[in-house]
Design brief:
The complex is a heterodimer of chains A (about 100) and B (about 350). Chain A has about 100 residues and is of the alpha+beta class. Chain A is built from 5 helices and 5 strands; from the N terminus they run ββαααβββαα. The two termini of chain B are about 50 Å apart. The chains are: A alpha+beta (about 100), B alpha/beta (about 350).
Chain lengths: ~100, ~350
């Protein structure tokens, strides 16, 4: 997945990176209980392929994986924070 | 004798989908079935994915089963796939396709006159010549039917509800669906579904503005709306006193978190001119919303006086901007509507994210 931001920056994400960063309650856990991503070490191939992406209001993207998992709403600020390009990594290590 | 449609379907129902555990006819996979007088049978076999592992087996099975029927001279099976939508909610592009601008009217707490503002804002935009819809998303306390004098039940055409015409506005409210004293007793998830249905199941047609009257607070209805559609903006209504402006700020900050542009704050019940002594009273204080707007860096859209005529005409079902356009209240609403229109047109130049899925 590629995002071209309004400020000209470009971010590229692998489906695998997005899947492991899924912010939904099932994956992250809620109420102090660990989520699924903290318990499993491997996800099968279907979980790691993106099927579709939709806009949520004006603040997030919803990503559907081929496994049918689609509860994660990736806010734009989260997506920007997930950018792994050399420039963003360098900026993060500075702060 | 050529077979009937039903006979063909009965035969095809012998094919089971191994994954879904049901026959392909009841799963709705057989489409566009035709039987010609010469006994030629043709149909479309719609799979749930083009990568269906039993695609070829389905095709052979269908051809053999129908081909063996008496009276069938030829079988044509078209294999297609219709990938079921991956999302539980409709895509934004499928919601309100003909609506140019969506303006939400929200408040922190109830009783500040949010519906009165929404109705008059819609009516003022209509008076200015725009095509305007008014969606009453306050499903627990719908007041738009009474305020617009539209207590009729909406007609259903082709499975979709037609909005009610009131004062030239296209109006739809939960009060039209549960009229009279029937309450709406819904838990959170149902509220979301109801709001979505008000947008997707109602034939809004082409509109310049859809004004959406939200329930007070920062709950399910507001959240669903901000997620379902890229709202053009939100106007927050409050009364001047601290206890009201403090909560209005919370509502505003919620929409900011969801990236919805605040169009500004509106101060309602801002002052009262006593009809007997002519004195101006500031019952709920004055200027609180303007101060709050300044503090938050959002526009102040205007102040509306507390007037008996606004309430009277709302109770009679006619917005004051239509019934008494020269009154101070109506003039305030008209001025606010033009402010809102100006701010939304600035917003219309914004670029919405474009999503390409390959």
């Amino acid at each position: 997945m590629v995002i071209a931001w309004e400020d000209g920056h470009r971010s590229t994400y692998s489906a695998e990176r997005l899947r492991w960063a899924c912010p939904c309650a099932e994956c992250r856990g809620e109420g102090g209980a660990p989520g699924r991503l903290a318990r499993v070490k491997n996800l099968d191939a279907k979980e790691l392929r993106v099927q579709d992406v939709a806009l949520v209001g004006q603040y997030a993207l919803q990503v559907a994986f081929e496994s049918g998992h689609s509860t994660g709403l990736y806010t734009f600020s989260l997506l920007r924070a997930l950018c792994d390009c050399a420039e963003c990594q360098a900026r993060r290590s500075r702060t | 004798m050529v077979p009937t449609h039903q006979q063909v379907l009965d035969v095809l129902a012998h094919i089971q989908d191994p994954d879904l555990g049901r026959d392909v006819v009841s799963l709705g996979m057989i489409k566009e079935l035709e039987v010609s007088p010469q006994g030629k049978v043709s149909f479309t076999f719609e799979l749930t994915t083009p990568a269906c592992p039993v695609r070829d087996r389905f095709k052979t099975q269908a051809q053999d089963l129908v081909g063996d029927m008496p009276g069938v001279s030829a079988v044509e099976v078209r294999m297609t796939a219709n990938v079921r939508p991956a999302f539980m909610r409709p895509k934004p592009s499928e919601i309100l396709p003909g609506v140019k601008q969506t303006i939400a009217v929200a408040s922190g707490k109830g009783g500040v006159g949010k519906s009165t503002v929404a109705v008059n804002l819609a009516a003022a935009l209509r008076k200015a010549g725009a095509d305007v819809g008014l969606l009453d998303a306050d499903i627990y306390g719908p007041s738009v039917p009474a305020m617009t004098g539209s207590r009729t039940v909406p007609e259903q055409v082709d499975g979709r509800l037609r909005p009610i015409d009131a004062h030239g506005l296209k109006v739809m409210s939960f009060g039209h669906i549960y009229p009279g004293d029937q309450p709406t007793i819904y838990r959170g998830p149902m509220v979301g579904k109801a709001i979505e249905a008000m947008m997707t199941q109602v034939d809004w047609g082409r509109l310049d503005y859809l004004v959406i009257d939200l329930p007070p607070g920062t709950g399910d209805a507001s959240l669903t709306l901000a997620q379902a559609i890229p709202l053009t903006g939100v106007a927050i209504v409050c009364t001047p006193q601290d206890v009201a402006t403090d909560i209005a700020i919370k509502a505003l900050q919620m929409f900011r978190k969801l990236n919805v542009t605040p169009l500004g704050l509106i101060e309602n019940m801002s002052w009262y001119i006593c009809p007997s002594c002519g004195h101006r009273h500031e019952i709920f204080s004055h200027g609180g919303a303007e101060a709050a707007a300044q503090r938050l860096g959002v526009p102040f859209l205007g102040a509306v006086p507390l007037e008996e005529s606004i309430r009277e005409d709302a109770d009679k079902g006619t917005p004051v901007v239509i019934s008494r356009p020269e009154s101070a209240g109506a003039r305030a609403f008209i001025e606010i509507a033009s402010q809102v229109a100006a701010r939304t047109s600035i917003q219309s130049f914004r670029q919405l994210p474009v999503i390409n899925v390959r």
